[in-house]
Each structure stands twice: as structure tokens, then as C-alpha cells.
Amino acid sequence: MGERLPWTKPVLTAHGAGGMNKFGNVRARQHQPDIDGVAIAPLLQQYGSPLFIVSEKTLRDNARRLKRAFATRWARVRHGWSYKTNYLGAVCNVLHQEGSWAEVVSDFEYHKARALGVPGSRIIFNGPWKPNAVLEQAIEEGATINIDHLDELYAIETIARRLGRERVPVGIRLNFDTGYTEAWTRFGFNIESGAAADAARRIAASKWLRLTGLHSHIGTFVLDVRAYAAQARIMAGFMESTERETGCTIEYLDIGGGFASRNALQGVYLPPEELVPSFEQYAEAITDALLEATRGRVAAGKPLPVLVLETGRAVVDDAETLVTTVVANKRLPDGRRAAILDAGVNLLFTAFWYNHEVKPLRALEGAAEDTVLYGPLCMNIDVVRASAMLPPLDVGEPLAIGPAGAYNNTQWQQFIQYRPAIVMVTAAGEVELIRAAERLETINAQERLPASVAQPFPQGLPE
Ligand SMILES: Cc1ncc(COP(=O)(O)O)c(C=O)c1O
What we know:
By secondary structure, this protein is α/β, with parallel strands linked by helices. 30% of the residues lie in helices and 21% in strands. The model is unreliable at 23-28 (pLDDT under 50).
């Protein structure tokens, strides 16, 4: 009798030829060795893995394309850089150098912009909570303040009275139904209910305030340009009726952010290259609607308002890549292959919404297979990609994941891991560290140990 082999549970694996998705296996075969000509692999050696890499060139190109698309269609255009999308100092200052103002939504962001050297007069202050101290600073420094609710309106009035400043210019944030997107009603004053017109009247009746602007932000990753055309029409209509009724002069219409970036939204069938409108398409829809809606104004010889954009994700998303390394492979009970990476949803918060592109740095041998990509967190939700067609990945294999520039470096979490370094590949092709990797000291620096708990094990405690 021969030796009895131990029984092992059989695993059935569906064999895929690697080209079984709708777009063939072209994507699976892509690889990305460099960013703007700078090889990625040596950067991992120098700065460690994971590593975020920002492309200054892409950032500047995006900002310039956005501005060109609008400035060739509307006389006066302003871009406010949405800090919450990515407030790395180097990213903000590249955009400020391109002429973008700062668009901030909290006291922290306001102070961050000021610390970077942005004058208050080039700050747009939005957000539902502006504490009194920073509100007062913003008034004194001439920031553009868009009021979210009546309590803020009263707060500004009280501060203006105390400072003896009459006719402080303010904007109001509006919300309304465009008919194309789910109406966000929690921010600002609603037009349909009459709350927005009431707020405008309330401002007109105050000697301390002066209504000079209208703001709205209709959503994010808005793929239908008709939503923006409707937004522009509704805001322009509100501008005309409010000016007529209260005698104010609206100097700016701020249409917020929300343009989609070239990222693949989960559950959306077509790839972003086919789905996401270009800046020109957004610009055409918005400015056509505005030109139409302001004809009477032009005929009456009144100046056209400045068109303010707060485009965030579409400017920065594809300008940043997360490079991560495979730390283990495993076969799941249902036969799928899984890889564990050293970066997870702690660093790539947007993995909850996007199917990011995942590319090895070099061309890999072997048939592509449906692979689950997990992060390093001891949490079930830590899934970077639920399904990606990838060739076999050895432990130690680095992968480039992107676009990763929007909302990751602001919404990331320090959960059981240090946050890694961020470098920028400059327009000159140099590599600069723009945020150092965290260490134990970084985290401990904020903690205090009361003397009574300074020792973990008091003397005399039995083993
Ligand atoms: C007021 C405001 N402006 C601009 C933005 C930027 O939006 P996005 O990144 O979708 O362009 C946001 C994002 O939530 C916002 O709330």
C-alpha cells in the first residue's frame, strides 16, 4: 500500500484568457514605469513604499486648460482652488501661481491659505461653519464670504456693527433643483421655497451688509453638462430678480465645483475617456446658458458678473499617483486571486467610489486574471479594487494606482499605519519631497501622558 496523501479541499478556478472583459485585455497589459519621464522604482527605494507622487506638469496643464476653456468664452473668469480637494501646500501654491484664488470651507483651511501667503482678498470663504473669530478676520481682510444660513448672516452683521464697518460685501449660497442632479438642499438658501429671496431682502435691509455675489455647488462628479446649463440659467434668473427687487449689484456668480475627473466611477459601464466631458464641453454649456440669460443685462449696458469656478477633482485627480507594493498573495475560497498591498483605503479613501487604474511599473509575464486588491488594514472594508484584471504579481511588485489626487490627501486616515511620504515631480523634472512620511514621533508629539499613567506596569504588579 502506498502512502496516503492528506485530503485537501479542491479549488475550482475559472480560466480566463485575460481578454474577457468588454474592453479586451489592453488595460491589463498597460504598465507605468515613470511619471513625466522620472522612473518610479528608484523613488520607492529612496522614499519608501507606499508613496504618493504629484506631477507638477499635469497640475499646471489642467489648471491652464480649465482657464482657457472658460476665458475664451466669458469675459471675466476666476478659479478658486478648492482646498478640501487637496491642501498640500505645494499643490495649493502651484495653483496659486497659475492665478487661482483659495476656496476654503473652515477656519483651518482659511489659516492654511493665509500661512501659504494668500492674501485675504484672494480667499473665497464657503462652508456651513465659520467660527466668529475667523469670520471677523475674513471681514477685516476683505475675503469673499458666501453665507450659508441666517445665523451666519446675523453673526456677520453683529461683527460688522462692532467693527463699525458698513456695507460689508457678502454673497449668499443658493440651492435649487436643476432637474438633472439630486438637489443638495443642506447648503445655503433654497430658491424654490423663497428662503433665498428672503435672505437677499434681509441683507438689503441691513446697513451693515451689501449683497454682491451668488454661489451654488450642485454636486460632485456631475457628468451631464446640461445640469450646469440649468444651474447657470437659474442663478442668472435669481440675479436679475434680486437686483430688480433690492437694488443690489451682483458682481460674481460662483458655480462651485463638481466637474468629473478622468476616473472610473464604480457601477458606470463606459470608461472615463468616453464618458467624462472635457473642460470645453462644460464651458460651452455654461457660458451659452449665461449669455442667453444675460442678454437683457447687456442690452441695458449693465456689467456682466465675474464667473467663478471652484473646480477641484477635475484639476488635481490625474496629477497624483499612489505607488504601493504587493506584500502577499492568497487564493480566496471562491477561487479568486487576491493580493495584499501596503496601501489601503486609509490612504485611498476614494477607492469606495472609483475603480482606479492599477498598473505594474513593468511589463509582467503571465495571463491576466481577475484579482481582488486588499489593503493592509485589519478591516474587512479595506478593498482597493474588488476586481481588476492583472497578471501574476510577486511579493515586492510595485503598482501605480491613480488618479489619486482628489480627496485622498485630505480624507486619509492615520489608522494603524503611518501616512507615507509625498513627492512632486517638478516641471523641471526634479523630485522634491513635499510631505515627509509620518513616524511614531509624529503621532506621539500630540499626546500627553499624565504622571499617574506614565508607567505601563506599576512596580509590584504580579506577572
Ligand atoms: C463649495 C464647494 N466648492 C467646490 C468643491 C469642489 O468640488 P469638486 O472637487 O467636485 O470639483 C466642493 C466640494 O465638495 C464644494 O463643497
